[in-house]
Amino acid sequence: MSRLLQRLPSPLVRIRSIKLKWSLIILAAVAVTAGTSQLGFALGWPVWVRPIMAGALALVAVQVLAQGMTAPLRAMASQADKIANGDYDQRVHTDAEDEIGQLAASFNGMAERLAAVDSLQKDFIANASHELRTPVAAIQNQLENLVDRVTQPDPDTLQRMLQQTEHLSALVRQLLDLSRLDAATLGPARELVAAGVLLKQVAHEAQLMHPGADIVVQLDGPLGISADEAMLHQLVSNLLANALRFSPIGAPITLSGEGASDHVTIEVADHGPGIAPEIRTRAFERFWQADGSGPTGSGGAGLGLSICKRIVELHGGTISIHSNNPEGTRVRVRLPLVP
Fold it and tell me: For residue 258, what is the enclosing H or E element?
């Protein structure tokens, strides 16, 4: 009987209110009961037969009308246990458009997000392990050579070890930054920030670290913004560091800030090799690099722009990559003045 009912289409599937469905079912049960009683009286059924027949037919009517209403709930209860055990491929299939259908859609959306997060976590761990292994292995090999006296502790050897250590330290710091930003459930610690002053400060710091760099700061309009100053400083520092890494030595890099009535725009433009339009969205993926090789001679690990994107998202802004004339890349950040 239950299998037969499951094959039948639900007659109330297009009704969008669960309350209205139950009201119609109750009315149908009452109507069937009353009609059966009247029919039994007209046909001369015994008194004790009438309520039995009326109840049985009312039960059948309820089962037919309610078909499919509770099936999604049973499916969700069963599949929630499987999701709790790590099987994120579970989905609830229903044509209902009522509150239960909405709940099923939310359940499926939750399962999809959990599957995406699980995939990202696995990729992140695998990539982080790979990126950490490279400098650690290099340092280990150099130390083993020193211990075995294959090489001497000359300045060149020690300098190479120092570079690997600095790269490892930077990578760990970026991983910690990403973890901290991902856990920022309370949002940025906002305060009134003079973005123009901050841009000049970050440019000065970058100039000290890269004496041969040509960083030009351009400011236009009021640049006061409600933001987390530490995050904003890190955002601009990462963008400048990325531009310096891929620009020819001595090529000008422009750091600009422009204020508007409801937002502030920050741009960093370089004269490097640029990023092809078809892969610009991938530039914000963690550990992704244009050549797909992971850390290169540029010293990056593909985390800088991921950190920038997360900071911008926490501030409710947008970040995008554009071409810079005649060559190079222009990264544009737009942040709202108030959250």
Answer: strand 252-259
Q: Contact at 8 Å (CB) between 198 and 236? A: yes
Reading the block at residue 249, the tokens are: 């030595």
Longest dimension (CA), the chain: 114
**Model confidence over 207-265: pLDDT tens digits?**
888 888 899 999 997 788 999 998 899 899 989 988 988 888 888 999 999 998 899 99
In three-state secondary structure terms, 298 is coil
Q: Which two tokens stand for residue 150?
A: 């294959």
pTM score over 0.70: no
Bridge partners of 322? 330
Three-state SS for 226-246 is EECHHHHHHHHHHHHHHHHHH
- Cα 262 → chain centroid: 26
Give the span between the Cα atoms of 241 and 322, in whole angstroms: 17
Domain boundaries along the sequence of the chain: 2-110, 126-182, 191-336
DSSP structure string for 19-33: HHHHHHHHHHHHHHH
Fold of 126-182: Helix Hairpins (1.10.287)
Q: In whole angstroms, what is the distance from residue 30 CA to residue 55 CA?
A: 10
For residues 66 and 98, give the distance between their C-alpha atoms in angstroms, rounded to a whole number. 13
Give CA–CA dist 267/218, Å, rounded.
Answer: 10
Burial call 239-273: b when 16+ CB within 10 Å, e when fewer: bbbbbbbbbeeebebbbbbbbeeebbbbbbbbbbe
Q: Which CATH superfamily is domain 191-336 in?
A: Histidine kinase-like ATPase, C-terminal domain (3.30.565.10)
* Dihedral over Cα of 110, 302, 290, 121: its sign: negative
Residues 6+ apart with CB under 8 A from 223: 194, 195, 196, 199, 257, 259, 264
